[in-house]
Amino acid sequence: MRAVGVDLGGTKTAVAVVAPDGTMGEVLTAPTPALAGGEAVLDAVADLVARAAAGHDDGAGVGVGPAGVVDAPRGAIISATETFASWVGTDVAAGLRARLGWGDARLVEVRNDVDAHALGEAWLGAGRGRSSVLMVAVGTGVGGAVVLDGRLWTGAHHVAGEMGHIPTPGAAGMRCPCGVDGHLEAVAAGPAIERAYALAAGESLPGRDIMARAADGGEPARGVVAAAAVALGRAIAGVVTVLDPACVVIGGGVAAAGDEWWTPLRAACRGEVVPVLRNLELLPAALGPEAAILGAARTVFDEARVRVR
């Protein structure tokens, strides 16, 4: 039994066939037509899945990790930012099933992209063997997910773990991509770091260059990066105080930074929590871009096992 895992990003879609032990086949990629609307996106995904699944008659189905808030039982998008045009309301599961011509024997499972990352890291990555994992993803946005005993906990409204939308001191008056002012994403995500640097330095630089200047000790880059890390660390402290996870796994493009980001983040988190939580591990994600493919495929394996019982 194999499953196709899909990492459906705003820029690129990547798919691969995954075995139950996590062994991956060739990764196929294609640009995501995110601004062309939900139907165009599903056309592109279905084409990749069909190519990846060709010749695998033992396929159990496909797991998809798209951006946006996902109603997992329905497999539909119920909330999203402007990264994808006409994405809210898209029935990903039904749309792919129709395009692929699959009957009910094959599963189509849909989870949020960060949820898929979290499942991959909890299964085979930095959170492997832990009873619970809080996943935090920091890149273009700030996302999060909670894995308990190997399974996602998405909450009553499908938004459990959504770190980016925590009201945050220092973010007052700053507009979050969700449309509400004052959220963590407005100060801690990659674009927020770029905006803060442009204001402080009077010049615009891409995030990787800001990180490089911060690593060299240059100001204002170092201060800007540290401020974003502190905001994230304090937010993580609040969440871990409520959830008490076995570990926190942090991934995404911003998390690829060095000590100039990680050191203030860890210090801010540990400075805010009660003593018993100060040794909580804050771990860099281990699987890179493969995590979402693996995690999406894992949802198919999990659901297949449930159906057998």
From TrEMBL:
A GO term for molecular function: kinase activity
Keywords, alphabetical: Kinase, Transferase
Protein known as: Glucokinase
InterPro entries assigned to the protein according to its UniProt record, in alphabetical order: ATPase_NBD, ROK, ROK_cs
SUPFAM superfamilies per the UniProt record, alphabetical: Actin-like ATPase domain
Organism of origin: Tessaracoccus lapidicaptus
PANTHER family per the UniProt record, alphabetical: N-ACETYLMANNOSAMINE KINASE, ROK (REPRESSOR, ORF, KINASE) FAMILY
Family: Belongs to the ROK (NagC/XylR) family.
